[in-house]
What does this fold into?
Amino acid sequence: MSALKAVLAGNPNSGKTTLFNLIAGTHYKVANYAGVTVEKKEARISYDGSEIILTDLPGTYSLTAYSLEEVVARDFITTTNPDVIVDVVDASNLERNLYLAVQLMELNKPVVVALNMIDMAEKRNIRVDAELLSKKLGVPVIKTIARDGVGKKELLEGILKFKSEKREFRISYGSDLDPALEEMEAIINEKSFLTDSYPSRWTAIKYLENDAEIMKKGEAFADVHGKLTAIVERVEKHLKKTLDTYPEIIIADYRYGYLRSVLKDVVKKENEMERLYLSDKADKVLTNRVLGPFIMLAVLYGLYEFTFWASETPVGWLESLFGWMGDTADALLPDGLLKSLVISGIIDGVGGVLGFAPLILFMFFIIAILEDTGYMTRIAYMLDRVFRAFGLQGSSVVPYIVGGGIAGGCAIPGVMAARTIKSPKERLLTILTTPFMACGAKLPVYALLIAAFWPGNKGGMMLGITLGSWALALLMAKVLGLTIVKGEQSVFIMELPPYRMPTVKGLLFHAWEKTWMYVKKAGTIILAVSVILWALMTFPGMSEERSAYYEDQIAQVESTVADEEAQAEAIAEIENAALSEELRGSYAGRIGTFFEPVTQLAGFDWRTNISIIAGIAAKELVVSTLGTAYSLGEVDAEESEPLSARLASDPSWSIATAVAFLLFTMLYSPCFVTLAVINKETGSRKWTAFALVGYTVFAFVVSIIAYNVVSLMI
Amino acid sequence: MEVLLRNMKVNQKGTVTKINCEGEICRRIRDIGISVGAEVFVTGRAPLYDPVALKVNDTVVTLRNSEADNIYVEVKG
It folds into this structure.
């Protein structure tokens, strides 16, 4: 017996996810819908001897073709032809929630309504007569309280009982549209136009609604398409003339009208609209026009502090673990390429990826709290006006802060945090600009330059850099939004759901799921890139002649210098010089040297160029690579005094070079892990390549200008 | 008295009389539950006066003033 296909549909905030988790438990797979980045959850459930495959559709208010989620939900229903659609509705707001149900029922599929959160409704003195509702709609209605686990059994029984029950559902759209709909249905039926996928009346309605998706499909059948659009045009013209309105408005009005007549005796409300519930009272304080912003700043600062404080210890553990693995490999493997590959390529690469995992875990934990409590939408609400000026929206603040808006963040969880932004254009702009923030790995570079060139004003410079990063990110968002990032005019219409206490289980699950996705998806790419970069900086290696030369030098020191300390120092100096030469001779070094004539325009020599290349692997490597290039051996990024002293006294470095390099670091390509995450989140190689190449070129142009301007001033 | 939603004050109540536009914005307005005949109650405004928050069907929703410009409301008094 083949498994039963059931899908879970419903509005955002209807408790759909909670209900899915209740039914599915923890046994579900997370994937993406084919070709898009919308998350798809699927569970296999055995109940009463039957197998049910339950798919969680994206939360939508409607089945129009405006948002990606809606198109995905609609296509999934029509292509997989589920045996049952479970529509989860919030009992407190039936009118709007059933608006989706009407559209689902118009697809003539078996619909079961899960009347969720009835406890919340009852607390608000809203009583719903489920039996009467079921009778009036002609579909089964099952009461559930997903949070408390109520209704699971009944719902599963409902799914089994009402599966595949074919139903014809139609409502009237009034005397202006009904005749046109009938006329269109006749044409559609006669030619079997799209009838494999959609009921004829549904297609007709979509034509009247000017549904871009369906019209596009229809264009392949020029004959029918032409006839239908002619009718639509006629109706549109008539409505414009007589009622000054559009078909889609009439359709919506009739749907709501139908629902009001259905709900008339079903819902008994004893509450007044003006009555303030606990959640409304909380909002009077939390989104107060004066107090609200201060509370929000405190919450955002707390989020940042907690994420980095809590992840410090596990990050330390992972660092020690990978350090230990490196040491073990060092001890076990013979010197040579394999050892270098294992330590610098594989262990460092994997360590780099997993090192961020705790940070991502805690960040998503906090974001889950913000989202599940409902506070996230309030942040978006309060800040929207400010961020809108730059083409972003209120929710963009969280990615920015996590990404380093408070110096020391990390762009990787920052970019991932942009998931909370629904509008595609604003989400893309946020993803593309979050990496400009002063992330923790850029801080050592800034610290190095400040110590070398502005030793008197460390705090002020760091603050300036942080604020400068904000300004750059916002301006860049504005410029990108006006030029190359295309998209619809943004819409900011959303629900501010009642504040709710999140469940610990839900929070942990949410955070774990996201972290695991990151490790799995980013991990494989990073490992490959890490090995490639290792190869770039290792091969072709030093010629035998040159290494013999350095060995000779060391032998000479050993035989001539008697004092042990002086000997060790002299040998270290030779070894460092050898490392520097080896690095210069590597492919990365050759690239750096090759570009030197160009980068000299910004004051960068081959050493700086190599550190820039290394910085694409991970910004942490900028300082240590500079150290190697300056023959200082391995420089610890946290203790870079010798290197900053060296830069300060180096004739090729001036304030102008420092300013140019500072700006370059702020602006150029994000590190590879971030690029991998950008690629995953945008689902676009084009934007990943843009961040890698476009930003680097742009950074160079800015650095050249800055270098020359500052050179003229000093 | 019929006013634009944009011009409603906090704690003011009314009934939606007209949503006058086509395309995405208006469809989203109706999808969120603001329909002709629905009762709305302005619960608050963001620190810079925009967006506006309002209660409709026992749910609080928010939209920008530029979007509220499409919505006409009959207010009492």
Notes: Residues 41 and 55 of chain B are 5 Å apart (CA to CA). The mean pLDDT of chain B is 91. The first helix of chain B runs from residue 24 to 31. Helices of chain B lie at 24-31, 65-68.
